[in-house]
Design goal:
Elements (H helix, E strand, L loop, with lengths): L1 E8 L9 E8 L4 E5 L6 H8 L7 E6 L2 E2 L5 H4 L2 E4 L11 H11 L5 H10 L15 H13 L5 E5 L7 H16 L3 E5 L3 H7 L2 E6 L2 E7 H5 L5 H16 L1
Parallel strand pairs: 3-8, 3-9, 6-7, 7-8
Antiparallel strand pairs: 1-2, 1-4, 4-5, 9-10
């Protein structure tokens, strides 16, 4: 599905690479947990994979096609739900959904009503987005990411700072996406979420991939993902000392 080969990225005037020689293969329908400390390169990688930044060196292929050569329809099958709220606070919930649907040239209002129902926002349809609680704002962010019925969705810290009910709802929704064959790339500092949702794990540190493997392979060794993650980073730190 997604093949990344020798990807390098350096921001202007930065002394080091944000990404260095990153190569990955993400199969269709997999759920990949993307982990790493702050500054590891996770956000940069996701911005390149979603076309928010241009590739400097290396190659990103979607079904064998370089990202820059994807058709409009193919690009519309890729979605990003960012950590920051990506909607208009002075528009209502319904107005936000209609606005983003128009960007995808989607006119099916029944689908938007279904999204309201799926995300528990029906009762809040006419509220200004700025007046929603933190959990409901996360749900709106998530609903917008589903408007285009994506084949690939990038979820970046989407459960930060929300109530347990909204968090559980979002996690259950992600499981449903993977069951439907949607490819999910998921970043979170909550490692229990990665255990619950993901079948594959990629660790980034200082812009490089330092581990890729299956989550089940780690758990079958009798250790938690959190312990594995912390021990692995400690070993990497020792190598650089």
């Amino acid at each position: 599905m997604i093949k990344i080969t020798n990807l390098n990225h350096q921001y202007p005037n930065a002394p080091t690479f944000a990404l260095r020689d990153v190569s990955l293969h993400i199969p269709q329908g997999s759920a990949v947990g993307l982990l790493g400390p702050n500054g590891a390169g996770k956000t940069t990688l996701m911005s390149l994979l979603t076309g928010l930044q241009s590739v400097q060196q290396g190659e990103i292929l979607f079904d064998g096609v370089p990202f820059e050569q994807l058709s409009k329809q193919q690009r519309h099958q890729i979605s990003l739900v960012p950590q920051d709220f990506a909607f208009y606070p002075l528009l209502t919930v319904w107005e936000n959904l209609k606005f983003f649907a128009a960007l995808y040239e989607i006119t099916d209002k029944n689908w938007l009503l279904e999204l309201l129902e799926k995300t528990g926002l029906t009762a809040h349809k006419s509220k200004l987005a700025k007046h929603l609680s933190g959990g409901l704002k996360r749900r709106l962010n998530f609903a917008i990411g589903l408007i285009n019925r994506p084949k690939v969705i990038f979820l970046d810290e989407i459960t930060v700072g929300i109530d347990p009910q909204s968090r559980q709802f979002i996690l259950e929704s992600v499981v449903e996406l993977t069951q439907q064959g949607v490819t999910v790339i998921y970043t979170s500092h909550y490692l229990q979420e990665i255990e619950q949702l993901c079948d594959k794990l990629v660790l980034l540190n200082e812009g490089s991939v330092i581990y890729q493997g299956t989550v089940q392979g780690i758990l079958s060794e009798g250790q938690s993902l959190e312990r594995f993650y912390l021990d692995f980073l400690d070993k990497q730190a020792e190598k650089t000392c």
